Amino acid sequence: GEDVEQSLFLSVREGDSSVINCTYTDSSSTYLYWYKQEPGAGLQLLTYIFSNMDMKQDQRLTVLLNKKDKHLSLRIADTQTGDSAIYFCAETPPYGQNFVFGPGTRLSVLP
Amino acid sequence: GAVVSQHPSRVICKSGTSVKIECRSLDFQATTMFWYRQFPKQSLMLMATSNEGSKATYEQGVEKDKFLINHASLTLSTLTVTSAHPEDSSFYICSARDSRGNTGELFFGEGSRLTVL
Fold first, then answer.
1. Nearest CA of chain B to the CA of A45: how many Å?
2. pLDDT at residue B102 is higher than 60
3. How many CB atoms lie within 10 A of CB B68?
4. Does residue B1 carry a pLDDT above 70?
5. With left for phi above 0 and alpha for psi between -120 and 50, is residue A6 left, alpha or beta?
């Protein structure tokens, strides 16, 4: 079945860039998403990328997709303490109802 | 943007009682909603897919008699944890897909933390 993998932890210093990586197995994925979860809260969509795109930029966020390697990354420029959260990568197959989530990467931003 | 509201956000109950959690799409209609469970420091686990006007589809290993799902309208799905036990304590999150959207984006509720004493 589909599988999505992420590294579990990442620590960066305030002001540095953060790069969170994700790999997936389903080559038929149509959309790939990044969600942010702050402590005790639900998930908030940060950004998404369609599978025929290589890159998408939205303010401090840059998503890179390498479809050949099935690798997705999220870069956060000028990381702030408010960016500390768990970031989930997710994918959805064509006509699929469900999302497949990765385990989440806990980002810690150090002062 | 679209908003999904969950209620209650926190609930504490005694073992053996039943607890109902509501999930509402506030500004869009959702024929399908999803219920997830999240254990501490773990990812989301899909429990069931709630379909408006029909029976929910449960994932393997999820007891349908234990976790009752009702999707009576296009904006409301409910999850009832029946005869709750301490091992049911968890963070439950719902999501809904805006059928009008092009991305098929899922909007998530804020989650409901259930503690069973």
1. 7
2. no
3. 16
4. no
5. beta
Chain-centroid distance of CA B6 in Å reads 8
**B4 near B108, Cβ under 8 Å?**
yes
Contacts of A55 (CB under 8 A, 6+ apart): A49, A62, A63, A64, A65
Please tell me the distance from the alpha carbon of residue A94 to that of residue B105, in angstroms, as a whole number: 13
pLDDT for position A99: 77
CB of B40 within 8 Å of a chain A CB? The answer is: no
Looking at chain A, how many residues does it have?
111
Residue-level pLDDT at B104: 62
The CA radius of gyration of chain A, in Å to the nearest whole number, is: 13
Chain A residue numbers with beta carbons less than 8 Å from the beta carbon of B113 are: 40
Q: Do A42 and B93 touch (CB under 8 A)?
A: yes
Q: What is the arithmetic mean of pLDDT over B41-59? A: 86
Mean pLDDT, rounded, for A28-51: 86
pLDDT (tens digit per residue) in B16-29:
999 999 999 998 88
Residue in A33, A43, A58, A87 to test binding to B, most B beta-carbons within 10 Å: A43
Token pair of B62, please? 């999820």
Mutate to test the interface with A, among B33, B43, B77 (most CBs of A within 10 A): B43
CB B94 within 8 A of CB B108: yes
Element (H, E) at B79: strand B76-81
Bond into B40 cis (ω within 30): no
